Amino acid sequence: MKVFIDLMWYFRQEKAKYIWGIVLLMCSSFMSMVPPFIVGVIVDDIRLHTLTSGSLFKWLSILIISGFAAYGFGYGWRMLIFGSSMNLAKLLRDRLFGHFTKMTSHFYSKRRIGDLMAHSTNDIRAVQEAAGDGILMLVDSITMGAMVIVAMAAIIDWRLTIIALIPMPFMAWAISHYGNLLHKNFHDAQAAFSELNDRVQENVSGVRVIKAFGEEQAEKENFRVQSADVVAKNIKVAKVDALFDPTITFFVGLSYFLTLVFGAIFVVHDSITIGELTSFSLYLGQLVWPMLAFGILFNIVERGRASYDRIRQLLKVKPDIVDRPNALAKVPSGDIAYRIETFRYTEDTPVVLKNIAFDLKQGQTIGIVGKTGSGKSTLVKLLLREMDCQAGDILIGGTSIYDYKMSSLRQAIGYVPQDHFLFSATVAENIAFAKPDATLEEIYEAAKLANIHEDILAFKEGYDTVVGERGVTMSGGQKQRVSIARALLINPEILILDDSLSAVDARTEEAILEALKRNRQNKTTFITAHRLSAIQHADIIIVLENGEIIEHGTHAELMAEDHWYRAMFRRQQLESFVVQGGISS
Amino acid sequence: MNESYPKENLARKKVFRRLLSYTKPHKKQLAFAFLILFLATGADLLGPYIAKVFIDDYLTPRHFAWQSLTGLGIIFVLLYIGTALFHYLQIINFQTVALKIIQQLRVDVFNKVQHLGLSFFDKTPGGSLISRITNDTEAIKELFVTVLATLVQSSVMLIGIFIAMFALNVKVASFCLILLPLLFVLMYGYKKLSAVVFRTTREKLSQLNARLNESLQGMTIIQAMRQEKRLRKEFGKTNGEHNHASLKSIKLNSLLLRPAVQVLYVLGLVLVLGFFGVRSFDSVISIGVIYAFVNYLDRFFEPVNSMMQQLTHFQQATVSAERVFGLLDETEMAPTKIGNSASSIQEGKIEFKNVTFSYDGKTDVLKNISFVANPGETVALVGHTGSGKSSIINLLMRFYPIEKGDITIDGTSLKAFSDEELRKNIGLVLQDPFIFAGDVKSNIRLNNRNISDEQIVEAAKFVQADSFIEKLPKTYDEPIGERGSTFSSGQRQLLSFARTMAIDPRILVLDEATANVDTETEEAIQTALAKMREGRTTIAIAHRLSTIQDADQILVLHKGEIVERGTHQELLAFKGLYHKMYLLQQGEVAS
């Protein structure tokens, strides 16, 4: 029941709704006490021939009124309690989302998106159930159970009540026990299903290999075996699941049996009437639900607690990159100086960057090259404060970037990441991502600079074309150029192109670089690249290896030395010849 | 929308009938399950009847014949034990059949997909294909396991209750029939209304999840572009809409589900009590009959509740079934053997004769391609992206049907070979070596039981993959995770080489990777490639100079045509492209 204490802040916040909800729920339970009672009265009246049309009419009228009253109460408490639990889910979802927007790459590198999604869906659902069904079952099992028992004991006979109740605790225990069993088996079945899913995924992605090696039959056989395993696991679930109803039937039947046997004895001894025996058996039917609820309650509460703990754990994580106190709200501008001694992602991981020191005058372009994993991306991400550097500093206009407010710093930077991620929205909305109120002219301008304007116009719906799964599928090169346009739209003083020209052909690359040069006077540009043609014309080129600068200079200077840069440049020239078959397209 | 509705309904009926046809192989078990269900329901419903007999024949007249009473008691208890047991068996049987049906459906659709042509895969996103095989069939599983089972069980229960009521008192029972149209109206109304409400709720939920998923993926961009606040607001809006829609569904459930059924119950009681009450004014009424009637009424509405709750799932499942059957009816099959000659590949001589090919039937990606690769020779294909290199390989692998021209192997048309003959003799090395989850061994063997462990080691040694495999903690039994991410791209390539060498093909089809790998692995790859080509007819999309240089014939492709062809020496003498490349390479070596 700990989850109810944990959620007390919410119940307090929604006090009125919960109190009214519980009151209505109790009224509705009370209304269901009426029909059995009236049945008993009428049966006795019929037996004793004391029933008059007047009294019959009276009782039936009360019955109908109680029915409609129960309807009203039932509607009321459902809206109040279930409605509130739904609002709780909404609240938690908003909180989690807000929290996610504050988390940094460090947080995301440790968690898989699938898991975060699971927290935001399954865990929230479990908490919602605890705050809705959980409350319902708690209240119902206590109040309705109590009301029925009181009705049976007070109106009819307390001895008979005790006798009839004997099987009930066993039933509640069995149901709760099955619940646990079911949970485990269900988990296994889910796991088997997700394995099956993985296999299908692999099969579809590897279709060429499978066809080339004639693996179709073997794949079919494997799938048959694995899907049979899913069936076996599900049958296990079914075997527990199928226990619920028969168990209830059995124990309730036992109660009826005890009621009839002992009730008959009481009738013979004139302690109760046959009418009372009839209402008693109806009350007994109404006791099934509170008992069941009691059994299910434990499962719901248990799951709710575990889920709520996970959500709280997640919300407890503090953002690891924050503004310094008294950070400057001014947008940084000016020369850039890198003075990094060492950088590592966490204390127990190896050093990623070492002794990175260089100066960049406002308006210059720097090219950063090196093998995969040499630290190129990390170097530019430090400027964005995606991570913070522990030993060393980066200065813009003579002031440390850590002395600016993060939002001011980022206002100065246009960033094109390696993985050209676009949102499922229109092309125009994607380009205007950083400035949603941009005019169409601004959007066109940015698109033209990024050499994607013509491509967009060629789409059927132009700038209103939706990107992503439900819309048009763009080529990698097109996506890259859209994300370049997105960064250019805010006309940033500092532009970072993190290997963002890799999927465009040589001619387009040249056109984009040319356009940048023309339109970005006095503005600084960082370019990291595998293809050296992208940085050939930069003012400064640095070559990284294992996180250290091994070469430093202009293209001409580096070509004069006989190191990595020259060898690589030659090799790439050669390769481009080979790939293109020597034909300039 | 209104116009298409009847048609859609008709299609739904067809889909449903087709789904039901899957029950045919399980006729016997189903019949058995139904039999037990009838027994269980019967036993269940006999309880109140026995109580009635007890009340009317023994309790009211105070007639206590202990022997028959004990008998009655024993029957009563036995009935409940029987009910519980039969119900358990009944549920298990229905569920087993349902699960087996779904497995069959899954296997059918998976098998179908195995034989679809690559052209189908080209235009169908992988995600939607996977979702049809797993998620859609899972939705149909719900239909069989929960929805149909509940509907069948509940209907049998309702019919049983009516039979029992008619047996007790025909007049009151026919009176109670009035409840049926009311019930039907309630169910129909709920089904209609909930279909709309639930659809919006589901849509909103999927929008909510899509938004969340996308934001998590693009968080770097959101933060770098300072859009956290806007995204929070947008998420909050979708969240609010979802909340609004869910509230509607709660409202609907509160108005039309349990509370409404409860009202019907009370009406039923009023009918029964009213009837017996009025009758009691002028005749003697059996108390036991009232007892039994009231008890039956009490049980009547639980099945109604369960049925109504399942109604909404019904539509969802039929939509899924439509999708699954759509895939099962797909006609775009992979090309396979035509005719029944038993051709076999001996020498490995490949000839392309005037091959023209188009993926979409509009633009030709290959135009009139002709060339011969003699047994043991290497043909290198060069040209930029989109020049048609990959299409040549795709056709040779018979991934797509040839419409114009022909490809022959040892003089026999490619069409005449069996799948097995082709796969056994043509080894493909893909640019992106696809690694399966499993271990090293299973990735080389690929389910081919004819390949022994020794042959696996041999193949790995042959392509120089053994040196890195031997260094793994469990060597050849080393487990490989998702897509072989623990291996470097070079290692993955070597592994895929070994996979191809394990089948020892006559013909080698190479799609060389350009990926940057470290020098040591690059050397191993080059040596392996040279050894693999030895004695095999090889068609290679070449990126490595070593491969091109050693080729017996080089084809330069441009826009689907061969624009330059010749051997190393011929092209060198031609002083064209190849000469240029050669000089460049010499320069690199010299420096």
UniProtKB/TrEMBL annotation, chain A:
ABC transmembrane type-1 domain residues: 19-303
Among the Pfam families in the record, one is ABC_tran
Domain (ABC transporter): give its ranges. 338-571
Which GO molecular function annotations are given, in alphabetical order? ABC-type oligopeptide transporter activity; ATP binding; ATP hydrolysis activity
Its membrane topology, per UniProt? Multi-pass membrane protein
Keywords recorded for this protein, A-Z: ATP-binding, Cell membrane, Membrane, Nucleotide-binding, Transmembrane, Transmembrane helix, Transport
Segments traversing the membrane: 18-39, 59-77, 135-156, 162-181, 248-268, 280-301
Q: What is this protein called?
A: ABC transporter ATP-binding protein
Supply the source organism for this entry.
Pullulanibacillus pueri
Taxonomic lineage: Bacteria, Bacillati, Bacillota, Bacilli, Bacillales
UniProtKB/TrEMBL annotation, chain B:
Q: Specify one Pfam family.
A: ABC_tran
Alphabetically list the UniProt keywords. Answer: ATP-binding, Membrane, Nucleotide-binding, Transmembrane, Transmembrane helix, Transport
- Topology versus the membrane, per the UniProt entry? Multi-pass membrane protein
Where is it chiefly localized?
membrane
Which locations, inside or outside the cell, does it occupy? Cell membrane
Q: Where is the ABC transmembrane type-1 domain?
A: 31-316
Q: Which GO terms describe its cellular component?
A: plasma membrane
Q: Which SUPFAM superfamilies does the annotation name?
A: ABC transporter transmembrane region, P-loop containing nucleoside triphosphate hydrolases
GO MF assignments: ABC-type oligopeptide transporter activity; ATP binding; ATP hydrolysis activity
Where would I find the ABC transporter domain in this sequence? 350-584
The transmembrane segments are 66-89, 143-166, 172-190, 255-278
What protein name does the entry list?
A: ABC transporter ATP-binding protein
Taxonomic placement:
Bacteria, Bacillati, Bacillota, Bacilli, Bacillales
